[in-house]
Amino acid sequence: MYKIGQQNLAFGLKFNAKGIVDCYEKGLENLPFGQRRDIEFKMIEGDFQTFEGRWSIEEYNNGRCEGSDSLLGQEFHTTLLYVVDVEPKLWLPVLLVEGRLCREIKMNLSCIREEAQKAIQNSRPSH
């Protein structure tokens, strides 16, 4: 996957980063409390020394009905995890992008949460 990012920095400066990222979707993993699936990624060429991590989505239920294979009436929760290790190349000042990168990741995850909540609300039958 070819990925491009651009940020406006202080004093009218712009920061551009690009790279080729390999992504690997792992198989569904059954856990004692539910299920998890990971997507791991690693930059193989680009503007960072290191850019790698994973997305994990975990679904777990709060009240599994013993002896029943039915999902009816069970309450499920889903958690999205994002782990990233970023190391800039020598020419890129860490302090210049670190705070902004953290804010952008938080904003992206919040937007994903909002969209997921909208999808859930739209899928529920109205009374």
UniProtKB/TrEMBL annotation:
Q: Which domain of life is it from?
A: Eukaryota
InterPro entries to which the protein is assigned, alphabetical: COQ10_START (IPR005031), START-like_dom_sf (IPR023393)
Domain Coenzyme Q-binding protein COQ10 START: residue ranges = 15-109
Q: What is the protein's given name?
A: Coenzyme Q-binding protein COQ10 START domain-containing protein
Q: Which organism is it from?
A: Liquidambar formosana (Formosan gum)
Q: Pfam families annotated for this entry?
A: Polyketide_cyc
Q: Which Gene3D superfamilies match?
A: 3.30.530.20
Q: Mind telling me which SUPFAM superfamilies this protein's record contains?
A: Bet v1-like
